[in-house]
Specification:
The chain is α/β, with parallel strands linked by helices and about 525 residues long. The chain is built from 15 helices and 23 strands. Helix 5 packs across helix 6. The relative contact order is 0.15.
């Protein structure tokens, strides 16, 4: 009964924890690192083929983005998630695979000209499609027996459609323990999404700390603030460019703009158009519409009962093809452009920034967290010039931030969530926050609630039965960023090694089978070895 912390330890992205219990290897999240990484993550301590199952808190890529790589390297277990998360992952993981393949193709064009070896994508669309076959979706509140001695239940975390905290009950060798993995805890009073649910008891809690050292401040009037930005920008003849996460934040912006239009808050530009320029955002919006009867909060549900679609309105346009996207910037009329990625480090938003950053009449409006090292963070912090597509662009547009719009609870929200446990946990592990946020929040929980806290670095191991650290890892700072993709030769060989690990896992799972079947299996392996032995 053991936890090993792998990713999002003193960092915000790359969530991944290994739980070993009842003879099973279980990952809680399998996320991709995004933005700048400051600390080295230890490798997965078991072969991917030996991972039996994954408990997935939600669909954001920093929690789900390495699932196709897990599959590529031999994983064939089950991925347990809510139904909403399953639906969103189906589009988000395919989108991520397409990005990996596009970037590899782009690098290969440059490598070929320079006489360098080709590179391969981290994973392909086939890997994304393959891992989706491993998903098993459940509703909130269902208790699910996933193995002898292990039960789980998903609780609404209020962060994203389908997002969850996960309760895990373990019974092994007459020792019973309950764990809670918080996932990303949502901000209260968000549009569309319900407030995060609290949990009554747990022996151990693993919780996020993204805003563990910061407050969102008094709740602003989002509608009034957004309407003011649109009105002021349109009066100057410019565009409002909103970098927004395709899943979650885009739909929230549509919710706000629908109300602004309904209340006629924009004057002299009554029929203004709003462009959603992101194929992923378009697909995600369709899923939000599919799930609105199951997952929306009471305010949005009331609109639905009145026959009003909360995230649609006259003047809403979508750009799917690249030609659709290009045409937006050849239209001189003031407009709102919502595009991904939300941190401006990839996607079509970079083209819209190229066309609008130099225009003093336009506004770039940030509506979400900007990770250190991203273009969005640089702009939000006042960069005067940025480089886009090999061209230096002077920043003359107004840069604004819609204060308080966050899918994450702030330090007060996080403290309220952990304080709601009626029975104090034995230990709270603080993860998923920048270094200072992790340390600060862990200290606050310890001092204000009297609960033992640990802010583990990657590689830390903890024995759940005894309640003791097995290994307290020390931070290892990154000296040099690894290349985005390996050479094709190395990648194919790595794939072969992963296939071998998967074969070993299959052999182990057949222990105790009929001798006749095992003998046939052994003969097949021997024949394969004879064929390839050099």
């Amino acid at each position: 009964m053991k936890l090993t912390f792998i990713g999002a330890a003193h960092e915000v992205t790359g969530s991944c924890i290994l739980l070993e219990a009842c003879g099973k290897n279980i990952l809680i999240d399998c996320g991709m690192e995004q933005g700048v990484d400051y600390f080295e993550n230890v490798p997965l301590p078991v072969a991917e083929a030996d991972v039996d199952m994954v408990f997935l808190t939600h669909a954001h890529i920093d929690h789900s983005g390495k699932l196709p790589l897990l599959y590529k390297n031999g994983f064939r277990g089950q991925v347990f998630a809510t139904r909403g998360t399953e639906r969103l992952c189906d589009i988000m993981l395919r989108d991520s695979a397409n990005i990996q393949m596009f970037e590899a193709e782009w690098r290969n064009r440059k490598a070929k000209r320079a006489g360098k070896p080709e590179v391969a994508p981290l994973y392909t669309i086939d890997d994304a499609v393959g891992v989706m076959k491993c998903f098993v979706g459940y509703d909130y509140g269902e208790q699910i027996t996933v193995a002898d001695g292990i039960r789980i239940r998903f609780v609404d975390a209020g962060h994203l459609l389908g997002s969850s905290s996960i309760e895990v009950w373990i019974s092994e060798n007459n020792v019973n323990k309950k764990l809670v993995f918080s996932g990303d805890i949502g901000n209260i009073n968000q549009p569309i999404i319900c407030d995060p649910q609290t949990i009554a008891e747990a022996d151990y809690v693993v919780m996020e700390s993204t805003y563990g050292d910061r407050s969102h401040g008094p709740r602003p009037d989002y509608i009034a603030d957004l309407a003011d930005v649109i009105q002021t920008t349109f009066d100057r003849g410019g565009n409002v460019v909103i970098p927004a996460f395709a899943v979650g934040r885009t739909q929230e912006m549509l919710y706000f703009i629908r109300q602004i239009k309904e209340e006629k808050r924009i004057h002299d530009h009554d029929d203004f158009e709003v462009y959603v320029d992101s194929p992923l955002a378009v697909e995600a919006t369709k899923i939000f519409m599919e799930r609105m009867h199951d997952d929306f909060d009471e305010d949005a549900a009331e609109l639905i009962r009145k026959g009003i679609n909360p995230i649609s309105f006259p003047g809403l346009k979508v750009a799917v093809t690249s030609d659709d996207s290009k045409a937006i910037n050849f239209d001189d009329r003031p407009k709102v452009i919502i595009s991904a990625s939300g941190m401006c480090d990839a996607g079509r938003i970079k083209h819209h920034l190229k066309h609008n950053l130099w225009r003093p009449e336009s506004t770039v409006l940030f509506v979400g967290y900007q990770s250190a090292g991203t273009l969005g963070r640089a702009l939000a912090e006042g960069a005067k010039e940025v480089r886009l597509f090999g061209e230096d662009i002077e920043v003359r547009a107004r840069i604004r931030t819609l204060a308080g719009v966050s899918g994450h609870g702030d330090k007060d929200g996080l403290m309220a969530w952990i304080s709601a446990f009626e029975k104090k946990p034995q230990t709270v592990f603080v993860v998923h926050g920048e270094d200072s946020a992790c340390v600060t929040f862990a200290g606050n929980v310890r001092e204000k609630l009297g609960i033992r806290t640990i802010a583990p670095y990657s590689g830390t191991e903890f024995d759940l039965a005894s309640g003791q650290l097995i290994k307290e890892a020390q931070p290892v700072r990154i000296q040099k960023k690894a290349p985005a993709a390996a050479s094709r030769q190395n990648t194919i060989f790595d794939r072969l090694l992963a296939a071998g690990q998967r074969l070993l896992a299959v052999i182990r799972r057949n222990e105790g089978g009929a001798n006749k079947d095992l003998a046939k299996f052994a003969d097949q392996i021997e024949a394969l070895c004879d064929k390839w032995e050099r």
